[in-house]
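Task: sequence design from structure.
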């Protein structure tokens, strides 16, 4: 089988993880790195002994016949032109989260992807974390019984990370939810197995360099009657945590501790699940190899990737609704962002 050719647009911090992920999968090969500053691309080419082109012009790269997959990992606010151009060029696309900062940009991306019938995956990379994969596999056979409440939190003082100062910019990163809390919203929807119907959110701005409120707490009502809660905070002085709670009539999970007598007869207390946890904000800890391999599988076997841009649009609708609720002080129906549903 011929290898699938990959190109990466944007050669910052996260790009290195994609380089390693494509190198690890023998079905792919990196054929081009694109950066406005060639030195950024050259460092990864040289560090990983790549035989690839270095480009400053994404359009030139997109005209290459030996590129099948394009990774867009530029700053958040400039994803859309690259996603649209890649789709128009017939390339399958990995889109770093968040795909965009406005409903209008999400709509432009979806229109281009649908028109050109290319595959996408949005980098909610924790889908390939062992704990989250385990939770998904416990929910599927009904280990927790009737799940009535789900919680997921993203707690990370991200603005203190020297290399990520731009995360404090409203223009580049949007809001706390769009910057990073969207990971938690994605997991909340995934584990709820239902679409959100309405949200009510509160936010707070503390004294820090961030140009937007760094803490937001969101209550979610799902269409099947479940309730959800998600908090994003960049303000608390604490180590990174990605908290998960699943509450059901037959069992409960709190992070990597499970109480499920249906699965473990006679169980009298929580038991620990021994696996790799989502306990670091460092991208080197995140399972990009699993994401890339999943996407290559879907391209080769013509399957729908998950989560793709269509699913991510629904996650964005929850984030946009939550931000609007926090700003307006009222509950917001997800249907107000109907173009994303």
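Answer:
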């Amino acid at each position: 089988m011929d290898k699938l050719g990959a190109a990466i647009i944007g050669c910052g911090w996260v790009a290195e993880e994609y380089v390693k992920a494509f190198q690890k999968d023998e079905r792919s090969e990196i054929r081009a790195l694109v950066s406005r500053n060639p030195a950024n691309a050259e460092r990864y080419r040289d560090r990983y002994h790549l035989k690839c082109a270095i480009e400053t012009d994404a359009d030139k790269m997109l005209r290459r016949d030996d590129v099948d997959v394009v990774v867009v990992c530029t700053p958040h606010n400039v994803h859309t032109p690259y996603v649209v151009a890649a789709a128009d060029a017939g390339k399958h696309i990995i889109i770093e989260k968040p795909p965009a900062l406005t409903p209008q940009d999400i709509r432009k991306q979806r229109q281009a992807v649908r028109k050109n019938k290319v595959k996408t995956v949005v980098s909610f990379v924790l889908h390939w974390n062992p704990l989250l994969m385990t939770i998904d596999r416990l929910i599927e056979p009904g280990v927790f019984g009737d799940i009535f409440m789900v919680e997921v939190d993203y707690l990370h003082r991200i603005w203190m990370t020297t290399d990520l100062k731009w995360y404090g910019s409203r223009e580049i990163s949007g809001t706390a939810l769009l910057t990073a809390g969207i990971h938690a919203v994605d997991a909340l929807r995934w584990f709820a197995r239902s679409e959100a119907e309405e949200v009510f959110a509160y936010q707070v701005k503390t004294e820090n360099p961030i140009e937007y409120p760094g803490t937001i707490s969101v209550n979610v009502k799902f269409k099947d009657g479940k309730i959800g809660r998600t908090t994003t905070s960049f303000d608390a002085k604490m180590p990174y945590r990605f908290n998960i709670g699943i509450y059901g009539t037959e069992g409960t999970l709190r992070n990597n501790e499970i109480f499920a007598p249906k699965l473990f007869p006679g169980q009298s207390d929580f038991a620990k699940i021994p696996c790799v946890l989502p306990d670091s904000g460092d991208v080197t800890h995140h399972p990009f190899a699993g994401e890339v391999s999943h996407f290559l599988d879907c391209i080769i076997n013509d399957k729908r990737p998950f989560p793709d841009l269509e699913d991510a649009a629904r996650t964005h609708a929850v984030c946009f609704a939550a931000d609007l609720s926090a700003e307006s002080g009222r509950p917001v129906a997800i249907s107000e962002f109907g173009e994303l549903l």
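The two ends are 38 Å apart (CA to CA).
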